[in-house]
Amino acid sequence: MKIFQQLLTLREHRRGFHIITDEIEDALPQIDEIDVGICQVFIQHTSASLTINENADPTVRVDFEMFFNKTVKENDRDYEHDYEGADDMPAHLKSALLGSSVTIPIRNGRLALGTWQGIYLCEHRNRGGQRHLVITAWGA
């Protein structure tokens, strides 16, 4: 059994959905030593999230942002938590809906993503800053 772990700091991204698959693969090149295994990517934040979805057509990411903005509206007077601005509580809710980690099988030294799949950083804040990920891979 081999186990590898790497911390990755992502540069600040604008609000929206961003493909970060290449950055994850570059951060943990030891994946190529694993024939069969698992890779978990965890984001250490409560106002950004991770998901896996379409990696080819950028309009999918635009539509994701539109959907989440319509579903979880800003400036809702019912929110009590608004210390950091109108996008703060909605960012926490969006993050809770999508989740803080993704798990991908490793096959023959590569992430076994489907042809049209990519890993997204879902940035829910207008100014989220750098984001920190913990990438862990294990297998044989």
TrEMBL record:
Organism, scientific name: Pedobacter endophyticus
Protein name: YjbQ family protein
Family: Belongs to the UPF0047 family.
SUPFAM superfamilies: YjbQ-like
Residues annotated as transmembrane: none
InterPro entries: UPF0047_YjbQ-like (IPR001602), YjbQ-like_sf (IPR035917)
Source taxonomy: Bacteria, Pseudomonadati, Bacteroidota, Sphingobacteriia, Sphingobacteriales
Highest taxon in the source lineage: Bacteria
Signal peptide annotation: none
